[in-house]
Design brief:
The complex is a heterodimer of chains A (93) and B (275). Chain A is mainly α and 93 residues long. Chain A is 66% helix and 0% strand. The radius of gyration of chain A is 12 Å and the shape is globular. In chain B, β11 and β12 form a beta hairpin. Classes of the chains: A mainly alpha (93), B alpha/beta (275). Chains A and B meet through α1, α6 and α8 of A and β9 and α8 of B.
Chain lengths: 93, 275
């Protein structure tokens, strides 16, 4: 269920401008209230999108992280990191 | 009696409006959309029925219909902030939409209902290029093409056939155009994006194959070859092909007036005009 929480908060970056501002200002504080596993919290704060992808987080929702430049992610950094998960692409039905 | 007078297939790339704003009306994307717009205008539609895959903006993982139909007077979008796109108010036809839903349910397609909703770039970007005055009412039909398990290609085609029959059973005179919105091979923000970009085309051969089958009117072959595995291999939004396949339910095996590939994007622009 928790991967759901990561997917949800990624989309909240788009929809909730106050949450977006809070994530840009202090991601650890903004995530403190979220129902996440420690692994997810650590991966989010480190901007480890390859790890999050492997945990099952939706890729185009994760795209909001670099789009709004939170958790240290910019498009070039995101691009490098997500491509490192190329061996774990999910194409199963 | 209502009749379907033509069909269109288009991409909905969210950065196309800002690209066209920057590069002007002679750039490739602007020209390709202009050609489809011309076809749409020649069809003189009273109503557009649009098959679309939402990017978890209209719906979300808490409540994700495989097929849904919007029944409302108006809806708004885009709700996902693509650049250079105003927020449009788009008229609809709730009377026709409710008829389509009832008739489809009667024929075995249990369409979810949404009455208060916004739509994302996948509905608005094509309309922004093709009917920017938003004069023509639009009924959106949502197909879950991003989150596996995907509905089968054949099921989506049969949905398109059921919707076609439902349209044709509307008693009043109405010229209807059906539109499919989406890509054939595209990865968005996933591991198969190209270096330095936010997207990529993992399976250009598949995109070419889809274009060739559309060109030939080989719908039956397309339904056989468009397995879920193939679509997902073609990218994390490769299932958007299902929107084109549902649109083909109104086309059958007719050959298109044109299929214009834009291969570096893994998609195409196409028109079937039989009126």
């Amino acid at each position: 269920m928790s991967v759901y929480a990561v997917n949800y908060l990624c989309r909240e970056l788009l929809r909730d401008h106050a949450f977006r501002a809070a994530m840009k200002a202090d991601p650890a504080a903004a995530l403190a209230k979220q129902d996440l596993t420690e692994e997810e919290r650590k991966a989010l704060l480190a901007g480890d999108v390859a790890r999050l992808y492997r945990l099952g987080v939706n890729a185009f929702l994760m795209g909001y992280l670099p789009r709004f430049e939170v958790c240290g992610l910019t498009m070039p950094i995101y691009n490098e990191r997500i491509r490192s998960a190329a061996d774990d692409v999910r194409t199963g039905h | 009696m209502a009749e379907i007078v033509g069909a269109l297939g288009v991409p909905h790339t969210p950065f196309f409006p800002s690209l066209v704003e920057r590069e002007g009306p002679d750039c490739e994307t602007a020209r390709f959309f202009a050609a489809v717009k011309k076809e749409l205008e020649a069809m003189r539609p009273d109503l557009i029925v649009m098959y679309d895959t939402d990017h978890l903006n209209t719906f979300f993982l808490d409540n994700l219909p495989v097929f849904a139909l919007g029944v409302t007077e108006v809806f708004h979008g885009p709700n996902d902030e693509p650049r250079a796109v105003p927020i449009y108010t788009i008229k609809s036809r709730p009377d026709v939409a409710a008829h389509l839903r009832r008739t489809c349910i009667d024929s075995g397609f249990d369409l979810a209902l949404t009455q208060q909703f916004t739509v994302d770039h996948s509905v608005v970007v094509p309309l922004h290029f093709m009917t920017p005055t938003m004069r023509v009412p639009v009924i959106p039909i949502f197909v879950s093409g991003h989150i596996p398990p995907l509905p089968s290609a054949r099921r989506c085609y049969e949905l398109g056939v059921a919707v076609k029959r439902a349209i044709e059973s509307w008693p009043d005179k109405l010229r209807v155009v059906v539109i499919g919105s989406g890509s054939f091979s595209l990865e968005v923000f996933g591991p198969r994006i190209a270096p330095g970009k936010s997207d990529g085309v993992p399976d250009p051969d598949w995109a070419k194959r889809v274009c060739a089958l559309l060109e030939q009117g080989a719908t039956e072959t397309l339904l056989t070859e468009a397995t879920s595995e193939q679509m997902l291999r073609a990218g994390n939004v490769g299932g958007e092909l299902l929107d084109w396949i549902a649109m083909l339910g109104a086309v059958g095996e007719r050959r298109p007036k044109f299929v214009t590939p834009q291969m570096e994007q893994g998609h195409a622009y196409a028109a079937w005009n039989w009126s």
